Model the fold of this input.
Amino acid sequence: MNKKYLKQEPAIRTIAMPADTNPAGDIFGGWLLAQMDLAAGNMAARVARGRAATIAVEDIQFLRPVRVGDEVTLYADLESVGRTSMKIHIEAWRRARDSDESEKVTEAGFTFVALDESGDSRPVP
Done:
């Protein structure tokens, strides 16, 4: 599948809540990484036409903090498809509740493998 067919698009939009904070009061990086994995998994399942699992996360960069109440939008970009795997680039952007301005806060590359009913790898259709 060519990148032209699944261009970067919003995959998830959520609000960062107080329960998601680290001891410094900013949103915990693990929460943000989980949201990114959900966004990538959403695209992977669509491309695989079924179950897919994360097998690698590469080059994660936390660029800016996310604060409680921020709207977080995650964009998914299908970079490549192999025989059984897919590479998906995710960008996370924050927008303060009282602002129209957004800024990129995190990005990473995710690799997923398509799985059959037994949990074994299978070709991506």
Remarks:
- Strands lie at 9-15, 52-62, 71-81, 85-95, 102-114.
